[in-house]
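Below is the data:
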Amino acid sequence: MPQERKLERTALVKVKSINDLARFAASMFTLGQSVYIVHFEHKGEHIYGLFAVYHDYYNMYGLPIFYYYSSSEALRGKYLLIRAEGSEQIMVSEGSKPGWVAIPIISLEKPPPFTEFAGDK
């Protein structure tokens, strides 16, 4: 009979603003990674975040990290748009715009099971 593996939780890192999360997502996007923001509700708050891996963390293959922003209100849109020409501009939108990095926001039914949010109702 196969032994059941325990699902380890990700490390949590809370950012100060949605702009910080958008900036991080845009930096990942410009490196050629596909990037998306996940959204779910937890204890009356709206959680927006993205998953990243801190590679070769000590003797591990990598440390999974969930970077997140918490808000009492939902964002009104399906994309975070980022543009950094001249000065940084970040907006929430229903669609993409030419010349902007568009990061999709994916709404989840419930928190991912490998985050602390899933075990803390």
Q: What stands out?
A: Residues 11-111 form one domain.
